[in-house]
Amino acid sequence: MQLAIIQRIIGILLMIFSVTTLPPMVVSLIYDDGTLTPFVITFLASLLTGLVVWYPVRNRRKDLRLRDGFVVVVTFWTVLGLTGALPFMLAGDPQLSFTDAVFESMSGLTTTGATVISESIDTLPKSILFYRQQLQWLGGMGIIVLAVAILPLLGVGGMQLYRAETPGPMKDSKLTPRITETAKALWYIYLSLTIICALAYWAAGMSGFDAIAHSFSTIAIGGFSTHDASMAYFNSPLIEMVAVFFMLLAGMNFALHFLAWRSLSIRPYCYDTEVKVYLSILATVAAITVSYLHYNNVFDSFGEALHHGIFQAVSIGTTTGFSTTEFYAWPGFLPVLLLLTSFVGGCAGSTGGGMKVIRIILLFKQGSREVTRLVHPNAQIPIKIGGKVLPERVIEAVWGFFSLYVACFIIFMLIILATGEDQTTAFSAVAACMNNLGPGLGSVGAHFDDLSDTAKWVLSLAMLMGRLEVFTLLILFTPAFWRH
């Protein structure tokens, strides 16, 4: 383990993160909301801490090893969650404890969207509102992927960081020959989609501030809003349909966006198996939701059932977490159906949470293959995606991921139950956090403020584990990882 190299990178990344407090400072000055000081303190604390960590090892320049990359990713996300909590703790509104501030910060950075703010979000200072949204935007593609485009200029290689950070089961595929160019391409696409989304929201009727803020959380598949009522505040089917369109795009593999942009064609989407399954699942869930809402007369007209049903199916299915109504109070099986859909989540290589569509496809294909082998024990049955045979190593990794995901879910849920929560709340809270969804059922339908501090720390860990896709975090707890 190259501790000096790891220390140097963490210091550099902290100094880079300090710059992200500048936009909220500008917002605070524009709106004169009286919260400039917390951001100035956070800026100085991040910058000076990063400088102190970096300076003693500033001349240590070696290539990162794979194990070093995992340590950097986990350490930095943990430090970032703690550092990002400072403005919430120092601001007079909202008045959050250390635990609540870390929960809110981790929720934003992991694009979960769960909140402990139970008082009126609408009345929070504009700079705090902007900061919450910006945290999600930075976490959406992964601030470390952004740093990968910058670190080579500072003499640090990036492939190890990219492999540890990128979501999905097949992490060695690159959009461009150089990892730096890959990271830049991802961020150009991410930034472009954010700008287009903001303009679409603004054209649909949002104010400039709300349009920018909601474009951050839409493209990041985050779910934070600047209003208590979330998307219901705007009472606009047009705004909701804009959100649906961009949530669908953000839930797709960004490599496909890159290929479509480079070829100026929609063919990459049309021929991708994962996208087809992704859209089919969401369409099926939306159809069931709309039909059940209409059949049970939950809304006065079919039109209302249609747009609420489609919006919530896409929002929960992509793990965004926006809401137009209290879906957790819907009748019958609908709330559970929507929550279970979040386990599938977005496509690999997207900003969505959940286990990812490609893994669900592979689990299904592997299950089907085992059933066929019961009839034909000696048959050689390869598993294919898009006509290409996948290596057995990928299939094994998917099953390993699934088993660890389920095991961690059960452990987290048992701990939440031990804190005194009911089964519905415990199950949905862990699901909402591990899937990076946000809203849950039971007492966490509206917010997470009523949970104990123990539960909040456990769920913060669940968010981080979901964002880093289990392996990246758990590998640090294996003895083999630390052996020379």
Briefly, what is this?
The chain has 484 residues and is mostly helical. The protein is built from 23 helices and two strands. It has a two-stranded antiparallel sheet with strand order 1-2.
Which SSEs are present, and which pair or pack?
Elements: H1 3-18, H2 22-31, H3 36-54, H4 66-83, H5 86-90, H6 98-109, H7 126-141, H8 143-150, H9 159-165, H10 179-204, H11 208-219, H12 237-250, H13 254-263, H14 267-270, H15 273-295, H16 302-317, H17 334-344, H18 357-375, E1 384-385, E2 388-389, H19 392-418, H20 423-434, H21 453-467, H22 471-474, H23 479-482
Helix pairs in contact: 1-3, 1-4, 2-3, 2-7, 4-6, 4-9, 6-7, 6-21, 7-8, 7-11, 8-10, 10-11, 10-12, 10-13, 12-16, 15-16, 15-17, 16-17, 18-19, 19-20, 19-21, 20-21
